[in-house]
Amino acid sequence: MIQSETGFIAAIDLGTSKITGVVGRRNENNVISILACETIPSDQCIRRGLVYNIEETGAKVRKLVSLLENKLGRKIGKVYIPIAGQSLHTVDFRERMQLPPSGIVTAEIIAQLRKEAEKYNPEMTGRYAIADVEYFLDGKPEKNPVGITCSIIEANYKMIVGRPNIIANIQKSIRDRTQVDIAGYTVGALASAAIALNEEEKELGCAFIDFGAGTTTLSIYKGGILRRMVVVPFGGRTITKDICELNFIESDAEQYKIKFGKAHENQDNLLSSPFFSKPDIDLVELNKVIRMRIDEIVANLKKQIELSGYAGQLGAGIVMTGGASQLKNLDIYLTEKLKMPVRQASAKKSFINNFPELANDPSLTQALGLLLFGTEDCEKKPVLETASEKTMQEEQDFSKKTSDRKRKGDKKKTEKNSEEKKRTDSFFSKMGNILGEMFSEDENN
User: Fold this and answer.
1) 64 closest CA partner among 19, 24, 17, 14
2) In 3-state terms, what secondary structure has residue 292?
3) Domain of residue 151, residue span
4) Predicted structure pTM score
């Protein structure tokens, strides 16, 4: 757990509409102090929660990290990343153990069961998390089995699995194309639930819906345990693209959706808005398109709640979060369609002790939730030389300087000797010439 004033946890949420980076410190009470938060548009490089364009994603992450570092005044060495995508879903894995007569469940037995679960690798999929576990002692459920006698203990693990190559493109875009390493991965839906849901909601039972831009994730909790998780491959950007069919460019369609879109009709009179002075904008048609897509998404959610086996048993109703959950009157629409109370959630105030505007933003729920799972210091520290390394380096430098001086001295000495030799040779050469001329004259005479 990062408590030092010199360290921090950093996370990057790869969203379909935007990439968000957040840096914070977490104290011994699990309370986070946010140090920096930056967001840049994804621009189609992320699709339905998965990295689509590796080069562009890498470039955007580099830019985002640079923005965060400028705010921090420090370097980021590694980050935590969420795992998302429409292929994610829960599967059950059961492990049981026979105990001797009057056997007592020990912590070692629980650890052994967990170890067996961690070996499980489902065919054609990747295992990305063990979300929860439910114990049964001689067929009866027991939340805290350690210390209780039984003949057979069974553990039912809720695994989150998905396509096996989800992580591959994340590594190629971040680890291989930036100067930043990956500290760890967390399933995005678990991060959102950890920071947004109350324990009472998990116990009573709730449908936790994360409305993202590319996907909508449903997590069913009951008895304090995740019972089912599934991803619907439609989200806020799907609605925006539907609006584009009314002959709008995507940026305008997004603005119309945000400012004037409604999931349910009420008494608001938006026709008086000066923004809608243009004659080619049909509010009725705009909201008809929006509700058609919302109808499809919620029909899928309703079916999945029924398949979970917990329809009619979710005492805490619906808890929704995510950027697309901010569509006007969506809570009224869900209450009417799913016959349950609805609460819009963001990061709980008990987890964030500053920047309330960030904690209150449903689009940041997942990014902030990632900080709860960080265990490593993500700050990039400067490399410091040890005393012995420094001494060794100084000795090497001194030896090099001495050697250089000796080579220079030897070179000068060689040059000096060469000059003297040249002068000597020249002297004897001249003398030889004089004597030669003398002898030549004698011979001629």
Assistant:
1) 19
2) helix
3) 89-162
4) 0.82
